[in-house]
Amino acid sequence: MSTDKHPDTTDFEDAADAVAAPHEPTYPVSVGARALHKSEAWYLRQLKAGALPGHRAGRTWFLTAADIAAAIEHTATAATPPQRPTSPSAPQHRRRRRRRPGPP
């Protein structure tokens, strides 16, 4: 008898190795929502619409650290410098003042 493995069993061993491999930690949707300062319901709507990355197992959604980082990147807005307030001495205001008739 040969000590070689039966060719049909190698598929099962490969599958067992894949299952035993370490996996990336996962987080509930509430963690992602907290990271974005949004509600869990909002985050779930975004997941269902495909706007944010996530994984679904049955009816439950879960996120990896990469999913949360991508969501933060996707929803980030660029910082803009503050607008200077318009003063009454703005050019438009000065033009309007010239058109007003003065007192008699």
Count the strands? 3
Strand order of the largest sheet: 1-3-2
Share of β-strand residues: 5-15%
What is the 3D form?
A: rod-shaped
N-end to C-end Cα span:
123 Å
Using the CA coordinates, give the radius of gyration. Answer: 30 Å
Quaternary structure type: single chain
CATH topology of the domain at 26-78: Multidrug-efflux Transporter Regulator, Chain: A, Domain 2
Element-level helix/strand string: HEHHEEHH
CATH hierarchy, class of the domain at 26-78: Mainly Alpha
Helix content: 40-55%
Largest sheet: 3 strands, antiparallel
**What is the structural class?**
mainly alpha
Helical run tally: 5
Mean pLDDT over all positions: 80
CATH architecture classification of the domain at 26-78: Orthogonal Bundle
* Unreliable residue runs: none
Please outline what is shown here.
This is Helix-turn-helix domain-containing protein. The chain has 104 residues and is mainly α.
Describe, in plain words, how this protein is organized in 3D.
- With 104 residues, the chain is mainly alpha-helical.
- The protein has a domain at 26-78: Multidrug-efflux Transporter Regulator, Chain: A, Domain 2, CATH 1.10.1660.
- The protein has helices spanning 9-20, 29-36, 40-49, 65-75, 91-99, and strands at residues 26-28, 55-57, 60-64.
- The longest helix has 12 residues, at 9-20.
Key phrases:
mainly alpha; 5 helices; 3-stranded antiparallel β-sheet; 104 residues; single chain; rod-shaped; Multidrug-efflux Transporter Regulator, Chain: A, Domain 2; Helix-turn-helix domain-containing protein
